[in-house]
Structures are given as structure tokens and as C-alpha cells.
Amino acid sequence: MQESCASGMDHDLRDLAELERLILQQISESSTIDELEGVRIRYLGRKGEISALLKHIGNLAPEQRPVFGAAVNALRDKVTQMIAARKAELDREALEQSLARDTIDVSLPGEVFELGGLHPLTKALREITSILSSMGFTVYESREAETDDMNFVKLNVPKGHPARDMQETFYLTGTTLLRTHTSPGQIRGMLALEGKLPVRFIVPGRVYRRDQTDASHHPVFFQVEGLAIDADVTFKQLRGVISALMNRFFGQDVKIRLRPSYFPFTEPSCEVDISCVFCKGEGCSVCGNSGYLEVAGAGMVHPQVLINGGYDPEEVSGFAFGFGLDRLAMLKYGIDDIRLLYGNDKRFLSQFRGL
Amino acid sequence: MRVPWKWLNEYVNLPWDPQEAAHRLTMAGVCVEELIYDELGVTSVVSARIMEVEPHPTRPGQKVGILDTGAEKLQIVSGAPGFEKGNITLVAPPGACLPGGLRIEAREVDGVLSEGMVVCSNELLTGQAPRPLEDIILLPAGTSPGVPASDLFELDDWVMDLDLTVNYSHCLGILGVAMEAAALARRPLKLPEVLARGQWAGPHGSRDPEPNAPGNPEFRLDLPEPEACPRYVGKLVEDVRFAYSPVNMERRLMLAGQRPLNLVVDVTNYVMLETGQPLHAFDADQIADNTIIVRSSKPGETLVTLDGIERELPENTILITDPSGPIGIAGIMGGKHTEVTKNTRRVLIESAYFDPLTVRLASQKLKLRTEAALRFEKGLDPTAQTAVAERAAALIGSLAGGMPVPGYTEANYLDITPKRILLRMQTVERLLGTRISAETCREILERVNFQVDQDVFHAQAPSIAVTVPPRRVDIHGEVDLVEEVARHSGYDSFGTGDLSGAVPGGITDPKLLCVEKIRDLLVSHGGLECITNSLISREDLARLGWDSDDPRGNPVPLQHPLSSEESVLRTGIIPGLVKVASSNIRSGIQGMFIWEVGRVFFPADRSSDGGLPLETTQIGLVSYGVLKPKTWLGGPEEAGFYHMKGVIHSLLNLLGISDVKYLPKAGMPFHPGRSAKIAAHMSTVGEIGDLHPACLKELDIPVPVTACWLSLDGLLSMVKPKGFVPPSRLMPVERDLAVIVPEEVPGGEVVEAIRQTGRHLDSVALFDVWRKPPVPPGHKSLAFRLVYQPTDKTLTEEDLAEDRERIMERLRKDCNAVLRS
Fold first, then answer.
1. What is the pTM of this model?
2. Domain B194-412 is of which CATH architecture?
3. Which ipTM score applies to this complex?
4. Chain A contacts of B560, Cβ < 8 Å?
């Protein structure tokens, strides 16, 4: 080799050109990264041919060295470049192949996650709680089993009062019963506050009445009681709170009407009617063609009830309201039979999953 | 109460149609529940003059008359009394219709053509044949022929059906409603003459309309129990002869929901409906010794009441008696023996005031809710008795020719000093949120016949002194007057206000906050929330194996349940949920995971207040069947012990309760080998397991069911605020460890031993259980993934090997374990 190199530079340069053609052919024919790496090692590796040629430069005559050296360096650079280019090409091909190989059928269904759900009464209560919370009402949970005294007497309904007919009662003993309304929660809630102001809470929960089960009655149902007491609480504010509640719960187009009524524990007392959510007040079978639906009872807390709760009616005033959660939920979701709420059929409950 | 429109308008000339009046009354608190148009369906019945009458040629008692209706002459056969020449009566020509769809046609009576029929009151109002002793209708002499019956009588009318609140006893008479309507319409009230004379509507109550008449000495009266019967007025009417009531009175009674009987009884009903004061008419000649004693019942006394039923009279029932025994149940119903009959000549009208509560209790005990009882028990005007008795006597006198005997048999223990209440304008404004002037309040109150004294007007703190008419038994204090002013101003006239002062609201009770988070967690784990009846049956408890040895088998019973199905308070949530599962299984639902949060009840212990049951909150969970269907990705996911346990694990994690043990074998209703008590911080907070096959059999459930209950109160006592540990800078290291242990060693103990022994261990997860070769029989292989989290220095292989050896040493010792290589 040394002989031949020494024998003539022209010959060496021709060999270089031949070598370059050979290498470039091998590069372009490499179909895998490994093959390409073999080519690189064969020519550019420490013991590779081009590396050998570079070492060979020292053996040349000094005048030949620059020319031959430049040619070998150029060859090395070119090969390096071509290998890099080919490598990029092979990488891209490999990626493309892997993308094709890893392609999935996106139309197939995903993993199944069975969504649970809240009972419609809980959903409605959460909404009501959230609306009233924004107006400063906290939540007070009272007992379900009550004394006759708390359920009636403290609320101005002594024994023998005709108002007891309004609520057929399940007695447990002569003096204990299942609360017929959430109103005893007013007294317990007030007593718990020990005279502090303002009083502003709701009492949600189960109530019990001796009603035979039918499409609109169930012996166990839910009420939400509200109570607000302060130095300056008025009937006008009662209207404001009830309107805000009904408009947020049923929609802004619902109209409110307050109608004089009677509850022994409020005075003045009223029924709260809303324009029928089904016929928009036009009159339909749900509202008995009246255009209005009775949804709540309310009024200014009776002075005696304030006294029973530890407040002075000369110093403070308050309003109270109570409504049937079942009724509100049924109106909102269009449920026409209360038995659906307590039947817990999966096909019914499943429809209330989600928002 | 039913209020016929034309009757109402007799007392006040309302400027409204019935619909508008109903609306106005309703919005003033006199709730008109329904407005009904009550039509008899009478057509073409007209007045006619009887021109000539001849006897029927062959039928004895029948007469043949020629009647002139103005438009035509009709030949009519009739045998009715009063069918005489010259009388003007009502005739139904062929083609006319009577109530009940009865259509009149011409017919022959024994060869004589009868072109229609002469109509008596009963035929006109009910379409039924004349009653005994019933005459034809005699119209006034000046009546022209051809006038339609509907112009002569109040046949068709609107009826307002009131749904009165219990405080509105003053509207239990049509006059009371008229007074409200007159106030709303600002029209005068027109009272019947006798009542006007007695100042029935006055602010001080009625006065005796015959103040100067001598007392009636013929009857003796004894009121030995003035608390129960403080006032009794007897009014005697003599020379009464039997009659039916005039058509309009009968029709009004029918419209108001009462059945007409005879004039005397009808008048007592009519005047009761008019004034609200119940009356009773005795045949005075049947009252022994002309003596009336109003006293409590004696043991064993009975009375045959007007409806013909012999009733045992409960103790403490107030009775109207004569010396021979009971003749009426005070305020509820009269006796049969003294009732007014066709032979009655002397009538004693009773107009009394009975104690509301006494009447109410007696009426409840007798299960006899009469119109009279419904009125007495609500409380009546205690001044009205004489005026109303007089009104009834005058009506009987004018309609049946009886002679009211001047004066009364009367006793009165009532102190009727009208209430005076000070109404401060400041109170009105403070409660309503709107200023209403003293002048306006005065006007409103005077319109409903309160008396307002103006002399207490003060410019600084204006107020008015109000005298409450005794009729208004619902008015007790200042706030009641505020309502009176408010309802006559219109509840919707005060505008809308906001609560003043920003107050933080929302759920603050930690227990309620936790419950809401638990609800969300259960939803996110696929659970459907149920709300089940908290009233259940003893059988529901027994079916779960909770017998009398178990506190859960001793529920709080209701005194008077509606049915045995709903007769006791639940002692657990599971019974209700299991019923839900059972009904869904019967509906073909393949699987379900359901839960409920609610109260459970246990009998009071000595420390509880007022003998009230103990109430605690429980979470119940039940699942069965396929929870997630098999898909191409895997599954199906089935309900079962380990699914439920996983949910409980999440729930306890949420609450930050980590010291939890599952102690094998819970009691009923669980399968002894597939259940556990859940112990947190050494105390039992719940139970979990598959239901016992015996329970499933009792419940007739064909598939396995898993259930769990947790005591929320128990869990919440363990919730503590948690701090946090900053995450380590060092990477966690994972190592697997597989051991073989004898089958009887619980896996949980192995996990616990590893957890306690390992150092820097973050978690231990069991990822495989293997019971086949090469694992020897009677053994199982448990494979764990251990995650180490070094805190201060990287763990070396030597450290990890050392830890593994430490763990194995413990497992060899405590769990009889060998390392699986």
C-alpha cells in the first residue's frame, strides 16, 4: 500500500474517487440503522479505511500532502454528512413504521366507568341549600323524633287545638311523636343560638304524617324550614328571600304570590304560590287551572314562638318559611308520582345522575 | 264550606262576577278552593194559571185541568193538593226537562190526555216524585203566566267552595263571608231585619233583640257545668204546622250541601249557614217536665241520635238532657226521640255556646263530625245566641205560621267584655317593612267592623286602640291586627326587600360537611343514592335475623301505625336497601350498587331527654350482581365482598382514618365466613359482608347480596385535622416480595406484619394470591409490591436486602412464612 501510494499521487486520487463512489453506494443501500452503523465503522471508525488514509498522509512526500490531505478530509466530511442524512432518513422511516404499527381503532368504546348518582331529593336540597347559603342561611339538622311540646305546644298549638287536625300525627308514646313538620327545628335552633343575632338557618329533613300513600302523599316526606330573626326582619324581606329562592330554583320567569293563610306559629301568615311552572300561569291540570301552585307556607314568627326560643319580640322580629322538598323536586323534574321518589327503581334513579 | 253566589249577594251587592269575587276573597285569606257552577238542568218549566179544573172521569182523586202558560193552553191531569182553579203554579209542558235528565212527554191517564205535568218543589229541584204531604208550588197571585222557572227561583248558581283555615271561624256563616266581601268591595252589608236589630255585626257583638221581653217561664234550664256549656238560649215557637221550605230555601240548602227535610229543621240549618251559629230544634212536647239540663254523660248512657244510630256516650260528653235522660249530644247531634216531625206543634230552638275543646274531644271520640261540631270546635261568637235564635224563630213564624213566644229560656255564664288591643304603627312597620298610616289602619279595621278609638293617636308614636268584635275569636294580640291590616291591604302590596347585613351562610356543621363529601365519594364510586322509608315492619327486621336478643330487633314502635308494613322505626339502613335490591331484582335489573345516609332509631335510654328515642346517622351500602358489564377490555365487574371493601377503604381514606381492622365474622344478617366487623381505632364502626344464605332465602332473593353499614357518628369522632409531609427529594424504590404461608394465616396479618416491620416503607400492595403448584397444598403464596420512600439518604441494595431479611424474619416467626424463590 505504501508502495502504491508512493508510486503516484494521481493514482491515489483516482482511488479516492472510486472509494467515495463505493462508500456512497453502501450508505444509500443501507436499509437499517445497524447496516448504516456498519458502514460508518468500516470507513470512519478508528480502524476504518478513511481513518487509515488520514494516517497515510504522513507517508507522502511533503508536496503531495496538502492535496491528498484535503481530498481525504473532504471525503471524510462528505461520508459523515451522508451517513447523518441517511440516518435521519432511516429514523423517519422507522418512526413512520412504528406509527403505522401502533395505530388503534379509535372507534371502539372506551373503558366503562359506572357513574353513581344522588337521589333527586338530595339534588334538589343541595340546590336549595346553595341558594339560601348565598343569602346567609346556615344548615341546622334537628331531631326526627320529637316531643309533643316541641312539635306543637312551643309552636302555639296546645292540646285540642283544631290546627292539630292539619297534621295527622304518628305518636310514639303519649308525649313523644315523629315530627309532623320541620318547625320544631325553629325552636331547637333558636335555643341552640342562645339569643345570638342574627338568626338565619334552614332545617331540612324528614317529616312524618298519617297519610295513606298515593300519588301525592307518602307518610314520610321531606321539608325545609327557614328562619331569620334580627332587629329589623320584615315581611317585605320574607318576600325577597322567597322570590330569590323560587327564581333561582325554577327560573326567572316564575312569579310569586303571597296569600293570607294561617299557621299558629306565624302571624301574619301566608301561603306562597308560584306561577305554574308547567303552563306558565295559563292554567293546566297540574295547577287545577288556577295558574298558580302552592309551594310553601310562611309568615312572621309569632311573638310567643320568639319568646319560646329565647328572643324578645319587642326587640327582634323574624320570618319563617317551610316547604315540601318533595313537591319542589317533583315540580322541577316533572315527577308526577311521589311513590317514584321512594321506590328507588334503578331506572328512575339513573336518570338523575350527572348535573 | 259552600257559599252560593246569589245567597251571598243577598247580603252585599258585589260589583264583581263570581270569578273576581273568588279571587279577591282568596287573596284576603278567605280561600275559595273551587268555583262550581251548579246547574239543575231544568228547561222549559214555566208559570201557568189553572183556568178550570174538573174531576177525572174514571180515576178517583185525579183532576183534569186546563192551564194557560201564556203561549198555549195545556190539558193536564194531576191529583196534587192545590191543583185548583185560579192558582198559579209551575208546569212542565211536553219537551221540558227536569233534574236527572228527566224529559216530560204527553201521556194518557186512563183515556185522558195529559200534556205535561204540574211540578212540585221536589220534582223541580231533584226530579224525584213529590214527598208525602207535598203540595204543588203556589206562585204569588200577580205572577204572569209563561215566566221560566229559572227566573222565579235560584235554580242554577255559582257556588264558592271555601277551604277555610281553622282560625276563620267567623267565615263559617255566609254572612261572615259577606262581611269580608263587603269590606273588600267597600259596599254596605245588608243584614236580615232581626239580626240588624240585634246588632249582629257590631263591634261589641250581638244584643238581645228583645231586651224587654219577659223570660220564658214555661221551660226550666239548668247548666250545672258552665265551663262546658256557659250559655244556653231556648226559644219557643208555638202553633207550628208541618210544611216544606220554600223552593229557594230548599235550593240554597242544596247548593250549600245540605239536604232539605222540613221547614223547621231547614230553618235551623239555613240560619246556621247564614250566621255560623249552629241551632237545634226540639219537639218541645217531647221534652219531659219542660226541663233542660246540660250535663256530662254518666257511665253507660246511650242515645239514639237523629241518624237513627244508638250511640254509647263516652265519658265527659256534654249532653242536653231532660229529667228522663239524654235528648241530644251538645254541639254535635240531637236525639231521635225529640226530633221535629210532621206532628210537631211546639218547637224549642236551641242556640247555645259550648266549650270548643269539649265538643272537639267528644266529636273525635264519637267519630261524629257534624256541621255543628265543626263550627262549635272552632269557637263562635259568644254573644250571638239570642239574636240568632230570634232570627230562626221569626223565619219559622213567617214561613210556617208558627208563633214565636216572646223572650227566652236562657242562662249565661260568659263574661263578654270585648278585647281592646293597642295597635302601634311602629309594630306595623317593623313587621311589614312598609309604613301604613294610622288613618289607613283605622279605615281597614272599621270596614271589618272593629271599633277604633281615635283618642290615642299620638304624633310621635301613633297608635290606635282597637275593640275586637267577639265574633273574631282569632284575634288575640297586636300581631293579629297587623295581619288584619295586611290582608286587607293585599299581601303583594308591600314590595320586596333584601335581608340586611352580610352574614356568612352555608353548611358549617362538620358532620354535615362530611356527609356531603361522603355522598360525592360514593357517587364517584358508582353508587346510586336511595331514600327509603324510615318506617318499616318488625318482619323486615326479623328477616335479617335481628330478633329480640339483638338491639336492632327491638325497634321503637308507632302507637297507631297505618299498617304493619310501616309500624316501627328502622334500626338500620340495610333493611330498606335490601328491599330496594329485592324489588329491582324482581324488575329484572342485573346489578346495582346502592347506598343511603339516614337516621336510625333506638328506644330511649334513661339519660335521653323527654323520653325521646336515640337517633344516630348511619351509612348503608348494598350491592348485587354485575356492576360493570363485560366489555372487550375486560370485566365484568361483579358486586361482592372485595368490591364493597374497596369502596369502604376509599371512604375511610377520605375521612383520614387509617387504623382500620377487619375482624372476621359479623353477626346476622351476614354470612359468618364472608363478613367482618370494621374496627377503627379499636372500636367497631360498622360491619361488612355477604348476606347469610338464610336471610336471602327469607327475603326470597335468588342472587348473592353484599351489604355494609357504618356508623357515621362513630366515624366522625375519629376524624382529626391532618397535616402534611413535604415530598422527599429522593426517588421511591419498588421491590417485590413473595412468601408462602399456611392457608389459615390471614393475608391481612401478613400485610400488617410487613407494614410494621419494614423501614421507609410507603406502601404494601398485595398483587397476587396463588394456591396451585408449586405451592404445597394447604398453603398460599402471597406476592407483595413494596414501595420504599427514602427520606434522608438513598437506599442502597444492602439497605434493601437488610430490610427484606428483617421482614422475612418477622414473617417466619409470626406467620409461619417461607420466602418463595
1. 0.88
2. 3-Layer(bba) Sandwich (3.50)
3. 0.90
4. 170-171, 210
